[in-house]
Amino acid sequence: MIRSKARLTDVSNDSSDSVLLSESCIKRLKKISKNPDDYLRLTVDGGGCSGFQYNFRFENQIKPDDHIIEKEGVKVVVDETSIAFIRGSTIDYHEELIRSTFRVVSNPNAEQGCSCGASFALK
Amino acid sequence: MTLHIVTRLVRCSRQRGSLVGAFSFPFCERQIPLPVTALLSYRHNSQDSSAQSDAGFISQCVEKRGLLRVVGPDAKALLQGLITNDMDCLNVDICPTINNCLYSLILNNQGRVLWDIIIYRLGEDKDKGQNYLLETDKDQVDDVLKHLKKYKLRKKADLFSMSDEMSVWAVASPPNESVTVASNKSHIFLNMDPRAPDLGYRLILASGTQASDVVTNCKVADDPQWYEKLRYRLGVGEGVVNHPPGKCFPLEANADYLNGVSFRKGCYIGQELTARTQHTGAVRKRLMPLTLAENLDEQPEGDAAVANSAGKQVGKLRGVICSLGLALMRIDASEDTSLHIKTSTGRKVGVTASQPSWWNTEGP
After folding, report:
1. In chain A, how many domains are there?
2. What is the CATH number of the domain that holds A48?
3. Is A46 close to B155, i.e. CB distance below 8 A?
4. The domain containing residue A70 runs over which residues?
5. Are B105 and B253 in contact (CB under 8 A)?
6. A80 inside 8 A of chain B by CB
7. What are the backbone angles phi and psi of residue B332, rounded to the nearest 5°?
8. Chain B within 8 Å of A48 (Cβ-Cβ)?
9. A47/B271 touch (CB, cutoff 8 Å), yes or no
10. Each residue of B298-325: pLDDT tens digit?
């Protein structure tokens, strides 16, 4: 079982965003991005057992209102609606027996969430 | 905005006691086959003179309840993540049924009831997509809209109040009567009340229309509290008076017996605690009907205590009308014959709690 180290690197373009990427997240993205236009998009949508849920997927289209977080060649993109929910959070990649997944940790805007970590409630 | 005109005619034979046809009502994921005569039966209570059935059907406008509309391609998805019941039960491809409404609750993150709602499926709006009406307390419509808008985010759904244009009516029928509705009237939506058969029908009309104009052989109840008394006698809680927001759990509000919860659908707000309570079987309190030893004029202050013979609190009063009440009672203490409440002057009034017939205590 590999334990990820959540060392924090603040690398956003816009200093007011302050969305952080952990070392394991960067490492994983470097490994799986097949071409330089690929990036990880994080969206917040309604749903899940606490009201809001995180959604990760790979894409290669950037929209005008997107915020881009780039470090060491890997890119994470968050749209305007979602950024408000995750300012100050850390995006991490976590591996354990039950699943290996990208996740949002230490979200200062979020209160309790569901036990699987995919859904959260706002403070 | 134009609403689709939807009318439903329910006919059954007048033969007593015969199983004329079996309808399945998937109010939640259970299919509940019921004989038609039982569906239309109305329990005549001889104590309440306003329930005399010589005029056929009795109706009353439920003034306390209002409506809001949710329409759009993502209307169903928006509601599905916020309610305890399964919107698929309103999907005609999955559940072809004559009933187009669903009882449900909206919970908060801690799994406690915020509002009880009835969702009506209107015909698809060809421009906008899925089309629903939500019934809730009239003075809560704005708060419910705010709640839905908070979680809407990117979903394509329009939300607005319909309380000025439409009103909610309750219609109760004598046994073995068929209900017919004038089909040339617009803005009529008639459904069996999805909660308990004895509640009869729920009718949505354009504001200003009377049910007696639209339903054959129907009169408006003389007693202004006729519907409330019917509900209290049956033990069906409704609105924030009986379910103060944040103060009870869905199973305590009898949502399972009233066909308001689905235990098979995916995540919604408050689901974890609801599912866990169901599976551990630990529902110790429920909303129960009370009979008081005398009429009370005053409404009790919030959560007034129901005490047993030893003076220990075993319940919380959640509404009183004349000599009827509703209280959140500890089930194991509810059979005590010396229960009482205290009025604002400190006087004791005896109460008796009873288990409604529609409680499905044998389990699913």
Report:
1. 1
2. 2.60.300.12
3. yes
4. 2-122
5. yes
6. no
7. -70, -20
8. yes
9. no
10. 877 778 999 998 989 999 999 999 999 9
